[in-house]
Write the structure tokens for this entry.
Amino acid sequence: MFMSKKWMVLGAIIIMLIAVSVIYSGTKTEIPPEISPTTPTSTTSTTTSVPTSTTTNTMSDSEMIDQLIFEYHELVKSESLDPLIELFVDDAKLTVTHLNTYGFSGKIQIRNYYGSRFEEVEGPTELELVDTSISIDGDQATVKCKVATDERFATENFELVKAGDVWKISSINMVLMQY
């Protein structure tokens, strides 16, 4: 059991490093190379072209989804209710299974669920994202996560939809288990 916790911690660290590198790569901007003036000689002529547009660094769908899942877990950990709810579509669904199964529909019910959860827990929520797999099909995606806390292990199955250029959570099916 002690060795498996070490592997879980190592896996969580690796996943966090990957998430940070994805976020970092999304914030990098490319600086066009400087164009140094040239002096034409009497035998040749030189034309210098100046770029007219700036290259932007766009994220792939997979990177945007990684960022969304990372942001979701960071907002849960920091108990940031309003920004968390903005990650959901208006008619999102949340199913939570822990001894019994509870269903929530729409942002208001989901907000009430997370609000009551945040009130129950003293201090910040400590959780580690242990494993994630993403499947993308056009403007829809499925993300399966395994999450560990000090006293629980959870599986989270996200259904995502892309609205314009933004991925949003359309449903989460969460199963909480005790160690």
Summary: The chain has one domain: 2-25+59-178. The first helix runs from residue 2 to 27. Residues 93 and 171 are 5 Å apart (CA to CA).
